[in-house]
Amino acid sequence: MDGKVALFGASGVIGQSVANALKAQGRAYRVVGRSKASLQAEFGTDPLAEIVTWNPEDPASVRAAAHGVDTLVYMVGVNYWQFHLHPVLMRKTLDGAIAEGVKQVVLIGTVYPYGLPRTTPVKDDHPREPNSFKGRMRKEQEDLLLAEHAAGTIRGTILRLPDFYGPGVELSFLYRAFVAAVDGNRAQLIGPIDSPHEFIYVPDVGPVVTKLMDEPRAYGRSWNLAGAGVTSQRKLVEETYRQVGRPTKVMTMGKGMIRLVGLFDPFMRELVEMHYLHTQPVLMDDSELRHLLGDVPRTPYAEGIRQTLAALKQRRAAAAVSPAPAATGRPRPTP
Fold first, then answer.
1. Cα–Cα dist 100/66, whole Å
2. For the NAD-dependent epimerase/dehydratase domain, which residue ranges apply (predicted)?
């Protein structure tokens, strides 16, 4: 499908990955976000990118952002303590998109709506039985899109991602480990760190999204995109320290410590209910996606770590020439 594509929530790392995939194909696209300065900094040099700001609270602004669009890729994030906004913003976006005649919506989703895994790995048709508030809000968001698809007002599909990492991905469980390894410090991790886990390398996501959105058979359901294999936080951190030539140094934070820190930190407070993902991990089976799309290349962990470290060092070198505000590097699971 060659129609206009709009990336709602384009400033995030997944949005940048999708934009890079579209750019590689020579396809024009629209980036939509709240901050013009942020969009300009990230996409202003790409002649294929059209920059549009929006206010999701204003129906006219939503319609203007969706005007002339055929495919809308939805990646709008909220603060971790504001998950109640996910279905609210989806409803406003769908109303504007439908009013403007948008043909289809691709929602970038998460494993949260599955709740506790009944099977390992989890297939696409696993029941959605969220055991957390965040999972319920994400399920409500999905249900709004799927209901409009069933009603025939707009086509919708959902691509579920595991936790992710990669160059510039600061909101990741692994980010502080990369920084600590480069600095020769101890990595602070959310434990347990030997549980099976999977991560997707962010640059691998964009090409999958563009293939999925162009596939008519993709709509009306959700699809899993698994990581580059089952691993653990410990294995990836050990590989990270190995690549920088330093012995691994790790400090773990258990659920009790998270709860204690959460008394003073709203993000950590919200992380408590999602701790089950460390003890009862959701590992995804994406065989149906691969059957639909064919080859789904994934960067091996060692190579993904190498590129992430290289990008971090490059950013450090650039910052030394032109200092920028330091990032907090707070660990965060896929939202």
1. 6
2. 7-225
Q: Is residue 290 assigned to a domain?
A: no
Position 99 in a domain: yes
Residue 149 pLDDT exceeds 50: yes
Taking the C-alpha atoms of residue 166 and residue 309, their distance in angstroms, rounded to an integer, is 9
Q: Which domain holds residue 266?
A: 165-197+229-280+301-321
Write down the residue that tokens 């480990």 correspond to.
177
Give the burial class of 329: count Cβ atoms within 10 A of its Cβ; 0-12 exposed, 13-18 middle, 19 or more buried. Answer: middle
The pLDDT assigned to 189 comes to 93
Q: How confident is the model at residue 278 (pLDDT cuts 50, 70, 90)?
A: very high
Structural tokens at position 58: 């204003």
pLDDT, tens only, 50-64: 999 999 999 999 999
Q: Give the percent of the chain with pLDDT over 70.
A: 95
Q: Which secondary structure element, helix H or strand E, spans residue 139, and what is its range?
A: helix 133-151
Question: 55 and 122, same structural domain?
Answer: yes
Q: Which residue(s) pair with 53 in the sheet?
A: 33
Length of the chain: 335
Task: List the one residue out of 196, 192, 193 whose CA is nearest residue 255.
Answer: 192
pLDDT score of 261? 86
- Give ∠ CA 126-272-302 in degrees, rounded to 5: 70
Q: In the block, which residue shows the tokens 């959700």?
A: 222
> What is the chain's Cα-based Rg?
19
The closest alpha carbon to 190, from 204, 205, 207, 172, belongs to 172
Residues 119, 186: one domain?
A: no
Mean pLDDT of 279-296: 97
- pLDDT value of position 318: 86
Owner of token pair 């890729």: 73
Cα gap 312→243, rounded to integer Å: 13
Structure tokens that stand for 15 in this block = 């949005």
Closest CA to 164 of 316, 13, 327: 13
Handedness of CA 103, 145, 57, 164 (dihedral sign): negative
